Each structure stands twice: as structure tokens, then as C-alpha cells.
Amino acid sequence: MSLVNLHQVHKYYGDHHVLKGIDLDINAGEVISIIGKSGSGKSTLLRCINGLEEYQQGGITLDGNEVTTEDIQVRRLALSVGMIFQNFNLFPHMTVGENIMLAPTIVLKKSKAEAADIAKAMLEKVGLAEKFDSYPEKLSGGQQQRVAIARALAMSPKVLLCDEITSALDPELVGEVLKVLEQLAKEGMTLILVTHEMNFARDVGSRVVFMHKGKVWEQGDSKTLLSDPQTDELKQFIGAVL
Amino acid sequence: MLHFSDLLQYTDVFFSGLMTTVELTLLTTILGIALGTSCAATRQYGHPIGQRTVTVYVELIRNTPFIVQLFFIFFGLPSLGLKLSPWQASMIALTINLGAYSTEIIRAGLNSIPKGQIEAAKVLGMTFRQTLTRIIFTPAFEKIYPALTSQCIIVMLGSAVISQISVEDLTYAANLVQSRNFRAFESYLVTAFLYLGLAIALRFIFNQIGKRLFAYREAR
Amino acid sequence: MIQFSNYDIISNLLYATQWTILLSIAAFIGGTSVALLLTAARLTRNNVVQKCVHFYVELFQGTPLLMQMFLCFFGLSMLGYEISAWGAAILSLTLFTSAFLVEIWRGCIDTLPKGQWEASRCLGLSFLQTLRHIILPQAIRVAVAPTVGFSVQVIKGTALASIIGFVELTKVGTMLNNATFEPFKVFALVALIYFVLCYPLSLYSKYLEKKFHVSR
């Protein structure tokens, strides 16, 4: 059975029809890159998967459970879905360590010591072990994003959603974040990324989903799809970004 | 029980009080903002002595109650030989009060103008006065217009105090009516809602004026 | 006719100042307490409750404090509830203060980026956990400076209690004026005392604001 399943998902902002019947099946261990022009609905799609946005028709299931925006539901979801944002959204009044330890202690009810061990292990993983006691504002953008990844990983999610997580970074900082993602992919983590990093999508991703006008316009194996696009829209898009 | 019908015969008393309040508010708004603008410009770009004088004025007014300022002007100044009618004293007190607050607000607006704008004007050969009136003021006022107009409304509400030196404003009318028919609660309640209506009306008018004043964005 | 020396004037004014300070503190405590309740009510995201809080704010920000005091003092006693000038002053200043503080605090909570709520939600924090661990610690830091700043308005507001006959600094000032016929001196002194009370708070508020902006 697939880990994430979307069936005929429709989403409206008032009169604006943003998602027009999305069908998508994602299996455990896949690395999905969602690409497309801005306004094509790709971020909205991602935010529907973890209940940050409502959808009006269709259904989304995650690990067999239905996804809704109900508070209780979203919180249960949080146990299996991690989310990384474009602008990090670290908590500025807490140290890096506290940022990571917060949810394990108050949501998973782990002890402080246990949470601290997890936090250290996760920071190790993203290569920032020495920043445990720093405040987010003292870190570079790339470092902040790696902390955000560590924070999400500390909840041991089954799938990680990444919403344009390198878009707010200076070009020279993009690499360090992508390296962490690549490592996660190798370890078998399921990743769903909304991204502009075509090279990453081709080299690390298993599948590319091209969104256009609120629909899944074209999808397939990342290497084949990007080297041999079938639709004019995708050809045009690839031509524009490469 | 409440008896609002007892107030009906005093409609004209309330109305003339309301008119006095409106009249004072409008005059104060114009004079106070003019005073605030010149003080803010002085504080920002003026001679050091001028700057210091403005600072002292603003801090003195902002850190003392309006009623004390009013009493000082109305009761205190005549002992220096400056005789003022209640209406004149109120006008002066309200203007000075609004002037101080608007100085601070307008200064924040002037501060918000990027230095590059002033430099660009200089490079184009504009004089300082031209720069100030043509480049700085409009965007500065646009930025602080909501804060400035709220302050005008706060001053209008604060003007209720001038009834204490027997200016026949809206509050004076309320006192007069309740002393005649002993319906204090009704009288003050109606007056409170008249003030509320006036505040809402003023906000609406200020918004409309603002839309006209700063329409240059949509004009083209 | 009793003669008042400068010493008499000043000592009377200073004595009255105690009542101004006491009234200010009482009103500030009352105002913050009510504002806390209203802020909590507003955060429940219940539409009806939010409308009610909005109406409350409009009502007390849109009418003169003096009128609120008259209503509390003359109005309540007309309706059969006996209330002292002291009680009416505290009550009306509490209502007035809370209406402004709840609005100031709303601004502080609203300045926090939406991402803070979203990130907390994605980590599985409940609404109350998000408030307690994420929103309030940050909002409080933003709110301290404007709240201290507003305390100056509260102190100045207490001067209106003189009109309903509560004997505090301004009232004693008018009484001394009537007795001495030295309005210039008396009201200048009254103003000076208010200034001494308020100015440090204004400065402190400015200092806090600067400190906060530097730390951001």
C-alpha cells in the first residue's frame, strides 16, 4: 500500500480553483520532486498533505489515515509527517537545542535527557553538533535550515515535506542543505519536495511531478522525464529554468 | 428604570454642545497638525537650540495630564497678564496638546523616508525647502496618516474636560441636562454615544480625505 | 483666611500624590487583569467572542474617559448601586486601560509571523502548547515597551478622577488654587509632579523599545 495517497483533490480559494483534481500515489522511500511555475499549485498541494490547508473535494490518506485540518487530526499527522519551510520558522526565543527538544518533550512526552540525546543525534546528522546552545539568529540561513531539518527529524517522521527549502538561501548556502537531503534520501527517508533545484531532482530524486494550472500535467521517473519531456508545457518549463 | 424620553426636550442643548465640540475639534486638528509639522521639521532638521526646545515642549506635554495643562493656561496665565476666555484657553490647550503628540508622530514619518530620496533630490539641484515640501512630506504623511488621525480623535475625546472651565461643549450640555432633570445615567449615556458617533464619523471622514490626499498612487 | 506657605503647598501636593500613585497602580493592575482575560477570550478564535471584544474596545476607545467616569459614578448610583468616587475612578480607569491594552497586545501577537503558528502545528503542538511555549514568550517581549508606555496614559487619566470629587493631585491643586489665588505656582507644581511621575516611565519605555530592536 502506498504511504501517501491523493484522490481527486480539489481546492478553492474563494472562486479561485487552485487544485483541479489531483491524483498521486507515493510509496515509502520515494523522493518526489514537485516542480512547476509559481502559481501552479505546488506549494498548496504540499500544504494539503499535512493539513495546513483545507481541500474541498476528494481525499488524502497518509499511512491509511485520512488527512483533515481538524486540530486533533493535524497533531496525529505531525507524528508521521515532518515539514520544512522556505523561511525556516525556527523559534527565535529558544536555542537550537531547545527548538529541537520542544516537540519531543511536550508532544511525545519524552524526558528532558532523552530529548536532549535525540537533539544531539539529529544535530550530528545535519553536521551542526557544536551549535546546540546557539540562538537561531546567530546562524547562517543554511545552518538555520539544517536546524529546521533536525527539528523535524527529531519527531522521527515517516515522510518529510520540503516547501522550497532552498529558495530563501544565498546561492553558496544551498549546497549544504541539499547534501543533508541527499543523505536522508540514501537512508531511505520518504521526501516530497517542492523545489526549483532541477539538478537535485534529477540526480537524487526518484520521481518528478510537473504541476501546471492546478493539475499534475506530467510525471515519471526523474531522469527520463527531465531529459525527455512529453508535453510542450514541460519542455517550455525546463527550457526556462535550465 | 431608564427614561430617555425625558431627554427629548433638551435636543437643542445637546445639539449646540455637539456643535461646539465639533468646531473646536476641527480648528484644533488644523492648528495642531500645523504646529506639529513645523515642530517636527525643526526637531529633525533645525538649529540645535530649536531641536532642544521642541524636545522639551513635547516631553512636557506628553508627560502631564491635559486637564492640568488646561488649568495652567486658563487660571495660571492671567496672573502673567494674559487674560483668556474659556474658549480661547481651550483652543490653545487643545492645540498645544495635539501639537506635541503630532510632532512625535510626524517625526516618525520623516524618519521613515530613505536617505537616498534626499540625496537624489540634492543631486538634482533641488533646494532644501523644495526637497522638504515636494519629496519628503507626501510619503511621510501617507505613512503616519492613520496614527495622526487617531490622535486627532483621542484629542477630541479628551476635549470633554474643557467643560470644567465652562466651555459649553457636549459634556457641558450633559451636565446641564442632568442637573435639570436629574437623569444622570440617561444623560451621560446618550452623550457617550454621541461622542462615539462623532468618533466614528470623524474616522470615516479622515479616511475619505486620506483616500483623496494620497490618491496619486492610483492616479496613473 | 489661612496663609499657605510654599512649604504647605508642596507638602499638601505631595500628600495628594500618594493617592494619584495608588489610584494609578490600582487601575493598572485592574486594567492588565481585565485585558489578560479579554486577550485570552480573543485567542479562542470564537467569532462571537471576538466580535464582543471588538465592540468593547470600540466602546471604551471611542468615548471620553470622563464620560465613562460620570457613568460609573453618577450613573451607577442613579441605578441604585452606591459607589464611592474612589470605586468609580478605579472601575472606569480599569475599563479604559483594559480596552487600550487588549488592542496593544493584539498588535504584539499579530506581529509574530504566521510561520511560528504553522511550524508549531506541524510539530504536533496543541493550540495551548503553541501559545504557552511559542507565542506568548515572544509576544510578551514585544509588549513590555508599549505597555510601560501606556502606564503613562493611566497616570494622566487619574487626573480626571478629580472631577468626580476624588481627592488626588489635581483635586488638591484646584483646592489650593482656590485657597491661595496663586494658580500659576500651584498648577506649575502640579504639572511638575506629574512630569516627575511620568517621564521616567516614558524614558524606560523608550529604552526597552530600543533594546528590543537591537536584539532583533
Automatic annotation (TrEMBL), chain A:
Any one Gene Ontology molecular-function term assigned to this protein's record: ATP hydrolysis activity
GO cellular component: plasma membrane
InterPro entries the record matches: AAA+_ATPase, ABC_ATPase_HisP-typ, ABC_transporter-like_ATP-bd, ABC_transporter-like_CS, MetN_ABC_transporter-like, P-loop_NTPase
Annotated ranges, domain ABC transporter: 4-238
Chief location category: membrane
Listed Gene3D superfamilies: P-loop containing nucleotide triphosphate hydrolases
Location of this chain's protein in the cell: Cell inner membrane
Membrane-topology descriptor: Peripheral membrane protein
Iron-sulfur keyword on record: no
Family note: Belongs to the ABC transporter superfamily.
Record protein name field: Amino acid ABC transporter ATP-binding protein (PAAT family)
TrEMBL record, chain B:
Keyword Cell wall biogenesis/degradation listed: no
Compartments, as annotated in UniProt: Cell inner membrane; Cell membrane
Membrane-topology descriptor: Multi-pass membrane protein
GO molecular function: transmembrane transporter activity
A single cellular component GO annotation: ATP-binding cassette (ABC) transporter complex
GO biological process, one term: amino acid transport
The UniProt record lists the keyword Amino-acid biosynthesis: no
InterPro entries per the UniProt record, alphabetical: AA_ABC_transptr_permease_3TM, ArtM/GltK/GlnP/TcyL/YhdX-like, MetI-like, MetI-like_sf
Membrane-spanning residues: 13-35, 56-75, 187-206
Sorted UniProt keywords: Amino-acid transport, Cell membrane, Membrane, Transmembrane, Transmembrane helix, Transport
Domain of life: Bacteria
Residues in ABC transmembrane type-1 domain copies: 18-206
Family stated for the protein in its record: Belongs to the binding-protein-dependent transport system permease family. HisMQ subfamily.
Name of the molecule in the record: Amino acid ABC transporter membrane protein 1 (PAAT family)
Organism annotation: Marinomonas aquiplantarum
From TrEMBL, chain C:
Localization of this protein: Cell inner membrane; Cell membrane
PANTHER family: BLR6398 PROTEIN, MEMBRANE COMPONENT OF AMINO ACID ABC TRANSPORTER
One GO term of the biological process aspect: amino acid transport
Taxonomic path: Bacteria, Pseudomonadati, Pseudomonadota, Gammaproteobacteria, Oceanospirillales
Ranges for domain ABC transmembrane type-1: 17-205
Family classification: Belongs to the binding-protein-dependent transport system permease family. HisMQ subfamily.
Major place of residence: membrane
Annotated membrane topology: Multi-pass membrane protein
One GO location term (cellular component): ATP-binding cassette (ABC) transporter complex
Protein name: Amino acid ABC transporter membrane protein 2 (PAAT family)
